[in-house]
Write a structure and sequence with these properties.
Elements lengths: L5 H33 L21 E2 L2 E2 L3 E6 L5 E5 L4 E5 L5 E5 L6
Antiparallel strand pairs: 1-2, 3-4, 4-5, 5-6
Length: 109
Amino acid sequence: MSTVTSYERSGQIKKYLLIIIILLLLLIGLLVLFYLFTKPPSLVRPAKPKGYYHMFSIYGFGSDRLNKPTDVAIGNDGKIYVADTFNHRIVVFNNSGRFFKKFGKKGKN
């Protein structure tokens, strides 16, 4: 029968405490990295080029957001036509940026 001396037991406790402290430091480091990589971007005001001004932004309509819009055109009637590439359609907005209509659908090659 072997007995563990108090010196050996205190050595084991110190070893386990050291392991726990190292693991906690690693966890804190991972939490800091998670925070840095997932925090929302800070707002930066863009430089305003002379002769241009921002009127409005178009993101889509309702829950039906634009998905990879690639081109924008303004028709003779003042309507804004947006090529919504990944949704395979053209979305039309009036001259104040409000949704007007959409047309097109995914076809076969």
